[in-house]
Specification:
Blueprint (H helix, E strand, L loop, with lengths): L1 H29 L1 H28 L5 H49 L27
Helix pairs in contact: 2-3
The chain binds zinc ion.
The site of zinc ion has 8 residues, from loops.
């Protein structure tokens, strides 16, 4: 019986701990770009300050020149890949905006042309026509 209760408590604890993680990831889906950008920006800042510290360590003789060059190259590579990711993330956001604009344009076009097309075959309706010139459907 005690084991059973322990198991339930353990299960509840896992759910309790894991639930916010799942919740967080599902929320992140709605705001992936800003969060991703924020994370990338803070990674970039960290890498930059690491580079500065590295230079300081080298100048104060903590690191040998070889160590310094090696670490510097690594951090610079990291910084570059972060910058590329930032560009990609920004690019995605811009593309999404463009697509939204395009959809909005299409929707407003459709709204303007509402009633100008035959409901049956989709042919353009002649002004003041009572029947579709294409399929003969009576137009309202
Ligand atoms: Zn028609």
């Amino acid at each position: 019986m005690t084991i059973f209760i322990t198991l339930i408590l353990t299960g509840l604890t896992i759910v309790f701990v894991a639930y916010p993680l799942f919740r967080r990831s599902s929320q992140a889906d709605y705001a992936v770009e800003p969060e991703k950008l924020r994370e990338l920006s803070s990674n970039r800042d960290t890498t930059y300050s690491m580079l500065k510290e590295l230079e300081f360590d080298f100048q104060s003789g903590i690191l040998t020149e070889d160590d310094y060059r090696d670490l510097e190259a690594r951090y610079k590579g990291k910084a570059i890949s972060i910058l590329k990711n930032i560009d990609n993330a920004k690019g995605d956001a811009e593309v999404e905006e463009e697509i939204e604009d395009e959809i909005e344009k299409q929707v407003s076009k459709l709204r303007q042309s509402k009633g100008q097309f035959c409901s049956q075959c989709g042919a353009r309706r002649e002004k003041d026509a009572r029947f579709c010139s294409h399929c003969g459907t009576r137009l309202g």
